[in-house]
Design a protein that fits this description.
Length: about 140
């Protein structure tokens, strides 16, 4: 059951970092974009990188249908369904019930991590492009 709590903490940390990336992209776009008085290809591509950064971070922030806990009644119903008689079998039934949720949660968190990585790369590209644009 600690694995579910660990996955929940990982998701919360990922979402916190995604919010930070949105803030960083906004600040860099505001400061570096305000330093320019013209629009060229560098500025257009930097703005596109900003959009990609924000959109991919928003994907991370969207609600997901994940399971991080369960009610005792659900576990009891599963134990009754499996005909559990003793405590050892109850633990085994709980483990078997949790395993598919752990795997599905891991897949979703992995996908969200990929989106977060994309947002970080887009942020770096945005900053480099704005810097090139301002330096011209």
């Amino acid at each position: 059951m600690d694995a579910l709590a660990e996955q929940e903490r990982a998701l919360l940390a990922l979402r916190t970092r995604a919010g930070t990336v949105i803030a960083a992209a906004s600040i860099s776009g505001s400061l570096l974009g305000a330093a320019t008085h013209s629009v060229d290809i560098w500025a257009v591509v930097a703005f596109c990188a900003f959009g990609l950064c924000v959109l991919s971070s928003i994907v991370v922030l969207l609600p997901q249908a994940l399971v991080f806990g369960f009610r005792g009644s659900a576990l009891l119903a599963e134990a009754d369904h499996r005909g559990v008689e003793d405590l050892r079998d109850a633990y085994r039934a709980a483990g078997q019930w949790v395993e598919p949720h752990l795997a599905r949660n891991a897949d979703v968190i992995g996908r969200l991590s990929a989106w977060f990585t994309l947002s970080c790369v887009a942020l770096a590209v945005e900053i480099v492009l704005w810097t090139i644009h301002v330096g011209r």
